[in-house]
Amino acid sequence: MFAREYKDKWRFGERYKDPLTDKWRTITISAEKNTRNTRHEAQIILDKKIEEKLTKITGKLPTQDNMRLDELFDKYWEEKKDSWRISTQKTYENSYTIFLDIFGRDAKLNNITPLMLTNHFDNLIKMVLKAKKEKASKNKKSKKHKKQGVCNIHTISGLKIYYARISMLFNYAVRKQFIQSSPFEDVHIKWPKEHKLELIEQKYLEEDELKEVLSYFRKQRPIMADMFEWQYLTGMRFGEVGALYVSDIDIDKKLVRVTGTLDYASHSHKQNFSKQPMPKTDKSYRNIALSERAFEIFKSNSKGKKQKDFLFTDEDGCPVSVGNANSSLTHSRKHFDNIGKNLSTHIFRHTHVSKLAELGVPLYVIQHNVGHSKSRITEQVYLHITKNTQQALRNSLNKM
Q1: Inter-CA distances, 330 with 29, 201, 213, 316, 327, Å
Q2: Treating both helix axes as pointing N-terminal to C-terminal, what angle do 322-332 and 207-220 enclose, rounded to 10 degrees?
Q3: How far does Cα 378 stand from its chain's mean position?
Q4: How does the average pLDDT of the chain come out, rounded?
Q5: What is the number of alpha carbons within 13 Å of residue 399 lying toward its C-beta?
């Protein structure tokens, strides 16, 4: 750094090389005095200005060789979050919170090795399998284990999604040249094989199981029963059902217009829940024909309401969040001894798929109703049901 007198003041300057031209540039600032303190302050300011100019040109931070995990996450989140829907932001944030809490927010990016990541995912797989085994044997320790763990992922499928999201974070770090290569390149996880048939049958309810669940909620929480049955009849996501306005139902054509999902993630009080004017994906914008039973549910819930009122509301007149619904399903589980399936709002969508497949409805029509252009689970349920239907037909023909 140099210091020169200039018009009753002092000018402090520093030279740096322009990485585009290889020419030397000079940056200066002015100060009233030339003392040890002012020189020290001037050096800090000049270094910061040079850093900003170099970063603007190269996109690379001088300190990125020692970048911490929380710094990487902050930059990644700032760049990506606006391209995600609010509900998607929440699920991604949950995944990254787990990773940052386990590895430490101040962990140095360059110090994370493939072996550390391999051990991390191996441990999570063991945890999920152990919890699954305990749950199957109705061991109460599984609840204790869930409370103590930092990770709230309970399935292998959930772990695979978590793996993909963390891998994306490191790919971003490579793209921005925060690291030269991703440690995930040398991470090879041996995912446990799952019984496909068992998994598919866990995804939907049989007719008697559906009746049992709906009958229970008719007595305990009628609004939940109506919403779950609406899901079964239309294939809609629970958030889409919760966001329906009375005006979203076309009375003349007897169809429902799906144009958004319930935004509860950004509000702490249910009185402030609002409709997010976009569903989960672009394919989710759709019109669905309503059956007579669905139309009955509409008429029952729209009585005394205005066009821009929410169709489905609780006893306080507020829309119902998917978290509330899933919590109610979890707590109701003990009342269904004969249903050995994980109950969540999605099971009613998959039950819709299974019923339409059983009725011989084409797959593309079902995919339209559930708002998917392509879905592995929808296709698996469809193929499983149609295969069973064909076998039943074959058995009948053999009796002729």
Answers
A1: 64, 19, 12, 22, 5
A2: 110
A3: 19
A4: 85
A5: 6
Residue whose tokens read 């509409």 = 298
Q: What is the pLDDT of residues 98-116, one digit of tens each?
A: 999 999 999 999 899 999 9
Exposure b/e, 266-302, CB count within 10 A at least 16 = b = eeeebeebebbebbbeeebebebebeeebbebbeebb
Give Cα separations from 310 to 156, 172, 248, 284, 303 (angstroms).
36, 40, 10, 19, 11
Could you count the other beta carbons within 10 Å of the beta carbon of residue 138? 7
Distances (CA, A) of 313 to 226, 271, 320, 321: 10, 11, 6, 10
What is the mean pLDDT of the segment spanning 309-334? 91
Residue 121 has pLDDT above 60, yes or no: yes
Q: pLDDT tens-digit profile of 282-294?
A: 667 889 999 999 9
Q: How far is CA 176 from the centre of its chain?
A: 24
> How would you class 204 by CB atoms within 10 Å of its CB: exposed for 0-12, middle for 13-18, buried for 19 or more?
buried
What the block records as the tokens of 243 is: 């966001």
Q: Which two tokens stand for residue 18?
A: 């322009």
* pLDDT digits 0-9 by tens, 213-259: 999 999 999 999 999 999 999 999 999 999 999 999 999 999 999 98
* Residue 146 pLDDT level (bands cut at 50, 70, 90): very low
**Separation of alpha carbons 184 and 13, rounded Å:** 44
3-state secondary structure of 314: coil
- The helix or strand, by DSSP H or E, that contains position 216, with its residue range, turns out to be helix 207-220
DSSP assignment of 351-373 equals HHHHHHHHTT--HHHHHHHHT-S
Write the burial class of residue 338 (CB in 10 Å: 0-12 exposed, 13-18 middle, 19+ buried). exposed
Q: Are 96 and 102 in contact (CB under 8 A)?
A: no
Q: How many angstroms separate the CA atoms of 400 and 396, rounded?
A: 7
| CA torsion through residues 221, 222, 223, 225, sign | positive
Residue with token string 């050995």: 340
